[in-house]
Amino acid sequence: MESGAAVAYEGMMFRLAHISDVHLGPLPDVSYRDLASKRVVGYVNWQRNRRRFMHDAVIDTIVADLKAGKPDHLAVTGDLVNLALDGEIEMAKLWLETLGSPQDVSVVPGNHDAYVPGAFDKVCRSWAAWMTGDGVNTPVDRNAFPYLRVRGNVALIGVTTARATAPFMANGFFLEGQAERLGKLLDDTGRQGLFRAIMIHHPPVRGAVSQHKRLYGIARFHKITRSHGAELVLHGHSHLPTLSFIGGRGARIPVVGVAAAGQAPGGHHPAAQYNLLEIDGEKGGWQIRLTRRGLTGPSIPPSDLQVLELGSGNGAVTASS
To answer: 284: how many CB neighbours lie within 10 A of its CB?
Structure first.
């Protein structure tokens, strides 16, 4: 990815790549003390399920294909790790360094990144360079979200829904304080005529996932985005390449999910994919071209799986050949 200097994209189409739910493996050595918490549930799940279908080779293939397309920026919408072990958090930081400069890669944490109490704070310290807003020099913590980065005519807004939950639960939370801060950012960037892309882990869509994985605060998120406006929402968590809409002021806001970046073919979910969004136009006339690119077989290189034109103004969707 090229330098993130805002002037580099002025008046040009902006190409934003999107991956999520990387679930980097293998797990580092786990002690009995590590498992004396909710982690024992996740450890069993990894051994029985994720270990078979989440592979580093798959992630490497997806990232190599993504980089070959030279997007202007990369959004990573959470779940980089599995149990939020200290070794996993450090491994994820090293992996983020391979993706590109923090100037060109933006991250929001997922529920697995905040798997147990204290993990969220460790992630904020370790991954701060990828979760810091422009011109911000204070430490990253929960109150630092949402953060804002402006690249050319695109405002990248990172929201967190990650919070430690009880065993067998994977809920997210979008609370009033963050909602108020998001509304102000949307107003400010809207007045500047910027394309506003919100990055969030849990889908702000009713029925997108089961109850024990759902986002608390969906109605609040809809109210804020309808009232203050936005052009795009990117999320992960469901491990599905979905497209929904939120009714906005004079337009519908596309809400775009993506298959898990580390998912090998043959599992219950679609094999690994990434989204490429080509953003063009100006305020009142934005055009978004969404290309889903990913794997169709164990030894088949990534290819275009779906191309959608998300029409400006009315949320119309057309498929391209």
So the answer is: 10
